[in-house]
Amino acid sequence: MTTLALFAMLFAFLILGLPVAIALGLSAILTILFFSNDSLASVVLKLFEALSEHYTLLAIPFFILSSAFLSSGGIARRLIRFAIAVIGHVRGGLAMASVLACMLFAAVSGSSPATVAAIGSIVIGGMVKAGYPEKFAAGVIANAGTLGILIPPSIVMLVYAAATEVSAARMFAAGLLPGLAMGLMLMIAIYVAARIKRLPRQKWAGLGEIADAAWRASGGLLLVVIVMGAIYGDIASPTEAAAISALYAFLVAVLFYRDIGPLKNVAWRQPDEALAAAALRNGVRMVLALAQSGTDSEVRQTVLAGAKTSIMLLFVIANAMLFAHVLTTERIPHGIAEAITSWGLSPWQFLIVVNIVLLIAGNFMEPSAILLIMAPILFPIATQLGIDPIHLGIIMVVNMEIGMITPPVGLNLFVTAGITGRSMTWVMAAALPWLAILLIFLAIVTYVPQLSLFLPELMDQMRGIK
Amino acid sequence: MIPRFLRGVEESLIALLLVAMTLLVTIEVILRYGFSSGLLWIQELTLLLAAYLVLLGAAYGVKKGAHIGMDMAVRRLAPRWRRMAGVLAVLLCLLYCGLFIAGSWDYLAKIKRFGIELEDLPVPQWLAHGVLLVGFGLLVIRFLELLWKIINKRAEGVLIADEAADAVDAVDAVDDVETEGESRKGGPE
Question: 20 to 30 A Cα–Cα from A77, which one of A321, A437, B130, B132?
Answer without folding.
Answer: A437
